Prior knowledge:
Residues 1-23 form the signal peptide. By secondary structure, the protein is mainly beta. Helices cover 5% and strands 60% of the residues.
Amino acid sequence: MKKSYLACLIALSCGAQIPLAYAQQVTETESTDETMEEVVTIGNRAAIQEAMNQQRNAGGIINVLKKDDMGKLQDDSVSDALQRIPGLSVERDQGEGRFIRIRGLAPDLNSVSYNGTMLAAPEAGRRAVALDVIPSDLLESIEVSKTLTPDQAAGSLGGNIELKSMTAFDRDGAFYSLTTDLGYNQQASETNPKVSGVLSNTFDLGDKQDVLGVALAASYHDRSFTTDNVETGGNWDLDEPGLEEFEYRAYSVNRERTGLALNIDLRPDDQQSYYLRTLYSEFADSEIRQGLIAEFADPLTAGTQSAGELVRELKDRKETQEIQAIVLGTKHQFGDWTVQLEGGRSEANETQPFAIGGAQFKQEFDDGLGYRGQQRLQLIAPDQAYQTSGYELDEVEVSDAYTEETENNIKLDVAYDLLHRDFQATLKSGVKLSQREKTAREDIFIYEDFADLGVSGLTLDDYRGADVDYGLAQFGPGIQADALWQMLAPLDRAAFRDDVESAIASYGIDEDISAAYLMADIQLGNWQIITGARYEHDERNAQGMRYDDATGSFTAVTDSYSNARWLPSLVTRYDINDTTILRMAYSTGMVRPNFEQLRPSYYLENDDGDLKAEFGNPDLAPLTSSNFDFGIEHYDETLGVISAIAFYKDIKNFVYEADVAGRPGYEDFDEAETYINGDDAYVYGLELNYVHQVKGFNSWLDNFLFSSNLTFTDSEATVDWLDDGVLLTRDIPLPSQSDTTANLAIGYETADLSLRLAANYKSKYLVELGDIEDSRYDAYEDDNMTVDFSAKWLLSDAISLSFAANNITDEPFYVYTGSRRYNTQYEQYGRSYTLGLQITNW
């Protein structure tokens, strides 16, 4: 059967703006393992109406992306697909989506789960799951919950992203599909192969038919690309004003994504089921970064020149992230009772073995160094800057890092269906026990004073590589990684270990969480009401290391924390008439501070009588929010829809980095950098969705359809600091919050051809506070809009060809300090093209 993009885009009325994807909203009380009907259609009105009815029957606000169209715009990873949902935007790395923001809240304030089990995060210091690790091919659907109900585990303020695996019962009988893609990156002139496959079938057991289901999905993607970068890192003196240093960076990157999912279901009858869900995903990122750093003797304005130093730097590393998950469960119905027992485990790790974090060759200049331009700064330097003989080997930093996180859980849910002459209700309760462990280790080695070590190769002449291919300016020669490794090999690595930095970078945190909830889902006339409360109790233990510079001593540090909270919610909908629905919700959310903020590592320095410290804060309180949603949806006879949802979040215990010197307990400190809970913060906004199918012309014009969504948000938080004993404050927007996000898509479909042009936009947002006391140094990511195109041609019921063009406008990535004229980071990625072939049930 042919799958229609037309039905998909009309279904976007539920809130999903995705690549011609099927979108739906489902009642939040549905079990996560309930079979979801596959929307397969050839574009007829019945299929469109079915998608719209799924939204009408929803109890809360949930957006769902279906597998079949998750990658139509080459949204190869989960993060790239999710950016097209209203209120969601993506934080990128090297041009690819990595972390997801929901309704203006940073990725660490949202949660990600796999079939009900919270996913572990591979990165040190973070709770946010890097969703570019997970290929979208492994999933049957993705659900984004924006209203929180008591049966959902705490861990988010913005919402939860639920990754649902495919099962053999999602389709009738045997199903198999093979997809091959060949991509091309214009900037790197590289071709990038990808292959993915799905195989599923149901089997008979004894005299029972179709009771055992087995589904297997696999994916492999090899992508090579380059990135041209110029950045200052915020090194501006805005009082002069002038630039202190900036850097060219030329990245050469290879990324391999490998994914595998095996899922087994046993359904002996309609009253009982047993299931196994598994996930394995690996993301191997090999990066060579050539750098050219200009450090000026005095802050300079554009076009002026002074003395300074040029540094040629190499970074060479391979970083591998793995995410694994397994869920084993069973569900039974006994009359009006339903019992579900489930256990899950998730593991994630990040490995970066013996990487060159920075190999530096330096050259001094008495004059002639400067820059010109604003966003794309260009170096002014003598010809000697591009010759190897003047650069002397100064330092090589090597690191060996490993991070691991595990999450184990078991939960029991019991539901009772109550039927009364005046109403019907489902009463539900449950308990959940979970354990989470995060450990991080990093060994850092600093090699220097090479002449004293008897090293003969002391200039860049001995390590010269080819001239760097850099599209923004003249770069000059690169550095050979192999030659550096050969030089370091005879040296005793242990003698160069930085014991202080290595100790501070290593820590361990354990969390035990006990939870229980009570909930009722009531249908009363035109009303549907979901209400109840969740109780969560935390026990946390943290281990780290304290270093005292004055005594040169290391001391093991341990800390414990206990916390308990009730999280109530009330989610409702009211059918005003057959075409108009009103939605209202109140819910509460909670997020634990991230591991970087909680770790008890402590560095104490006595700098000529000035006492300075840098440390984490294991006693941070969780962030909590009170969430309010109000929305209305209207359906018309032309199969269009218009909807609006307003939301408000009142956030307490906002966490930020601060200098607490002079405050109680730190009266004698000159500097004491740590993390603290701040005053209240808030975020509010409005999500608008509009879908229109062209009709009535009785011509080719009836094949057009338009879909769009637009989200406005605003936020405010307060930070404070001491100045000569006086507590001062200033208001800031929440980090990662864009005032405006938008999606617009124009589609054209016939029986055999589907075309789509889509644009994704997000306005500027605060990246980080450069100086807590001075807003001029705050770093902002600039407005960003990407345009993508896709086409699919059905050659037969079994074979289709596809083409996609991404980043058609070659949109750069730009971060600035305070004002757009002060570069913090500028990157350019180029356009990408993909040609694909899919064969299904041949």
